[in-house]
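ok trying this again, last paste got cut off
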Amino acid sequence: MLRRSTRSLGVLAAVVAFGTLTAGCGGPAKTAASSTQSNGRAGLKIIMVTHGQAADPYWSVVKRGADDAARDLGVSFSYQAPQTFDIPQMQAMIKTAIAQKPAGIAVTITDTAAIGPLMKEAEAAGIPVISLDTGEDVAFKYGALTHVGADQHELAMLAGERLSSEGSRKVLCLNHEQGNSSLDVRCRGLKDGLKKSGGSMVELAISPNDPTDSAQRIQAALSKDPLIDGMLALGPVGATPMLQAAAKAGFKGKASSFDLSPDMLEAIIAGKMDFAIDSQQYLMGYLPVLYLTQFAQYGLVPTQRITPTGPAFITKENASQVLGLTKKGVR
């Protein structure tokens, strides 16, 4: 399964390179403006509406990928997200995006009942939609051209299997955003991965905006149940308080997390964290913009339902190589 994903990512690298090259197909002597006009993209606008703020460590990389794609391809692009996790506000943003009649819309399907009907509304208005990051299981029911991202259940299940293989039997799943369906799926996947070896999962709700409170909750959970010998944060906002709580509690088990941040990678290098799961979200930003541009111009769209961008496990062996790219905002 991992080998298949790796090969797919090699193809994706070539696709991204192709998108970059086509942006400059007019030749080096032409200006960016003249090149954009010659390739017919001057009037194309792509709008991306997600549940993740651009300042978040994870979503800043998604936005960086999308911004780079828009620059490379010479299209207009707008990234929009609520200030906090807010589904009604996200719905309003998608409705506004539809009213603008862009060349395409990219969305995260964090709440199927709320976002799905709006995707159908966009489709009825002749606006193509691509989903990213979350919602791969329902994207096509609501008319998505394709989905870009990793299978969240598969990623978490692989994490559970890895933790089991390293000796963990009872793992704390740290959910920092209750109501986000993709995080719920991650906890379920972790549970399924652990179950294969007789392990179990305990979910703990923590705050996305109060790391001190989150660390206290995690430390209390570790003190209450000494059988917990593993932890999985569902993103960088949970990883930092997890590491703080582990240090204060003298935790000797395995600590791991989804996604990447410089602090997390430095913790892996220092041996304070076992591994991180890289979903390569730069591609989640870049590829929807590329795909929607190619569809608007040529009617081209990938034939596979999901373009996988992960998983890639980051461990002590390769964390140093990734750290520099994470500091640059591309990993």
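PB: full thing came through this time. Residues 2-23 form the longest helix (22 residues).
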